[in-house]
Amino acid sequence: MHSYAVQPDDTRIHDLEIDTPTPEGRGVLLKVIRAGVCHTDTHLREGGYNLGSRGTMTMKDRGIEYPMVMGHEVVGVVEKLGPEATESTIGSTKLIYPWIGCGECRECREGNDNRCAAGKNLGIARHGGYAEYILVPDEKYLVDIDGIDPSWAATLACSGLTAYSAVDKVLPLDPDEPIVVFGAGGLGLTAIAILKHRGHESICAVDVSDRNLELAANMGASHTVKSDDEAAKNITEAVGNPASAVIDFVNNGATASTAFDILKKAGVMVQVGLFGGEVTIPTALLALRMVHIEGSFVGTLGQMQDLVSIAQTGSLPNIPIVERPLNAAEVEQALDDLTSGGVSGRVVLTG
Description:
InterPro entries: ADH-like_C, ADH-like_N, ADH_Zn_CS, ER, GroES-like_sf, NAD(P)-bd_dom_sf, Zn_alcohol_dh. By secondary structure, the chain is of the alpha/beta class. Helices cover 30% and strands 26% of the residues.
């Protein structure tokens, strides 16, 4: 089968011919029909994450093997079943939960695969969806998407799930308590849509792009602020009070510092993005202001199932999606566009 892979120390995407895998046990092989392009893939292609003064955490440091076939927002059609897969039907269309754990630790036993310290995530530690076919090790990770556009459904596996999980960490609040969303790309727009769906009213979007801020307002943001050196002052003036919560889909040194500065006493910072860097926080203020800082990485299978159910009701607005064909050149171009900030919403590749 064709796979579109990255090699170590090489940012190009290579069209590689590899063996089509055979499902075993409860495993399922699917034909890829949609693959969303996520900002995480730009970091994977670059080979690591910026840790500020601690240097770079490379994919090799994490034990990732190459060639790496990325792509973790995947919708596919069931092609073959392992001998113990009894709940799936050949020809059915499924959304894949990619955040797969070891299956044995306490977190996995409790349904929190995304918290597993030995995770084998699709598109990172296992071959992902930038390919003709994808192997899922257990059919429990497949979710029905009847009634949902498959391109939008693909984004629910990461963009949607990550936003949904982050919103869960800040709600419930009174509807008029300010929540500030840093980054109005695919994740930020989805978070705004989810906040509106759950009845929240005071939502401030912050971004460097006027186009993204326009989209944020269309999705339901009550306030929009351009990200610059005056962002903290402008955000507080826009919402009228210190923020009760911040969801930071950028999470670099500048946004994290601003997030801490604009929070009310006992406010919540949820740090999601992987742009990297570091932040210095006065430890006395951390205690005196009782600020709660929490990292958030994607979400659970149960949360993705809940999100899909909400989407199937038709009450959740779609984020803007650009469709392109699934091939090596388009994978590379989509990643280049994301890196340069040239994407509003989400790019989804179609197989």
